[in-house]
Amino acid sequence: MMKQFTRRDFLKASVIASSAVLLNACKPSGKSSTSVPAAELDLPFEIADDAVNPLNMPEPVSAEGVFFSGGFGHDYIQFAADLFAKVHPGSTVSVEPIQGVGEKLRPRFVGGNPPDVIDNSGAGSLDFGALVAEGQLTDLTPLMNAPALDTPGKTVMETLFPKSQDGGMVSGKPYALNIAYSVAGIWYSSTLFQEKGWIYPKTWPEMLDLCETIKSAGIAPWTYQGKYPGYMSFGLLQGLIYKKGGVQPMVDIDNLVDGAWGHAAVVDSLKEMYQLAENDYIMTGTEGLNHTESQAEWLKGNAAFIPCGIWLENEMKDMIPDNFNMVIAQSPGDKDACRAEGGEPFIVPSKAKNPIAGMEYLRCIISKESAKYFAVNVSSMMPVLGGTEGVTISTGMQSAVEMVEKCGENVFPGMRYGGWYSDLSKEADAMMGEMLTKRITPEQFVEAVQAMADKVKADPEVTKFTREK
Question: ∠ at Cα 412 (317, 70), nearest 5°?
């Protein structure tokens, strides 16, 4: 099922946010621009003269980009590089796809020769908090205040979903550009549910009842990305917590408040999740599977539910059965609420050879033209207003938009400790895996993760960050 996604729809999808506050202008110095006048550029859209090279990027330039290649694939990154080359004839950005960003790029930061622009995503990404604390990242204020590439009269910030960049802000300054609007939740096949007469549960008791029905039909109710159990946190747990206690318990966890992991909303949510393990509602062998393997089992019909972000559809596009019709839903609870925010953070190292070129590449990738390509070819959203005008979207993306619209003001951002405190993130993910295999109880989960949070808080070598909401 496909539908046209209009600008009005996109605006509805951002109802969670109030008006964004523009950052103060700050323009870098550089050599005189040799940009070709806008009228002479072979582009599929109109571009104003002041939007050709507003960052005063020295030209020509050969910039280096290194990008995580995961659920969104890599074609959209190349598309933005091609757009960069059209806007700046004679200049290029290389696009190297990698995985294990932290392991492969950390030595280059230490050596003082990092790439000009990086997609810092995926398992094993660079420690964002540490990079900011060490002065390794470029303040992206000039980018945010530069004219947008293909939206005349608007700055880059003015073209973005309000609040979509909050996760990349530290002390009021942007150090990462979130190029995706990441919606997370629980996925299932609407075709399967229609065939079986199953209705997606509104409450947790209804979820358990449906799991028993699914199990009786010879299908595992749940699977998850076994080797990366953190998927169960952002796909299910955080929604359960919000519906019980609002955003404050998660804010307290991020801010390392004493005893935050022991909040009733957190403990009760963990106990609900534990019931999936207790009742054998999780597919046998799940813990040994990586993300694509577990997702493949789900697509084969061996499990009914799987947690993931909106990138799932594109990541598994070559394996999706005909008429599968995947859709995303919110965590069960007594009110409508879902997790959605800016994601897929791109960064520009401060010690890169061409940091201005890195920012200029980001201006291209966050353009309306790039957003349209992303929607059609990646089946996902960029946080660009009007970024899907005149294009069609998939059933998965359509369901994500509808879920966000339905949740209204109860669309909340995910917890941020994962990007701020790597040791705490690793411990929480590990304990999630232990709990979902019944090796520890929810109470033991809380004890272990709280102990790590206390350790991080007490460590003077760890830079601390604060989240307001």
Answer: 25
Per-residue pLDDT tens for 195-240?
A: 999 999 999 999 999 999 999 999 999 999 999 999 999 999 999 9
Class of domain 3-25+51-182+341-396: alpha beta
Separation CA 149–CA 29 (nearest Å): 20
* pLDDT tens per residue across span 332-367: 999 999 999 998 999 999 999 999 999 999 999 999
pTM, whole model, 2 decimals? Answer: 0.72
Q: Provide the token pair at 423.
A: 């040791």
Nearest 5°: phi and psi at 467?
A: -110, 135
Domain 183-339+413-458: which CATH number of 3.40.30.10, 3.40.190.10, 1.10.10.10, 3.30.750.24: 3.40.190.10
Greatest alpha-carbon span in the chain: 71
Residues facing 303 on adjacent strands: 220
268 touches 435 (CB < 8 A): no
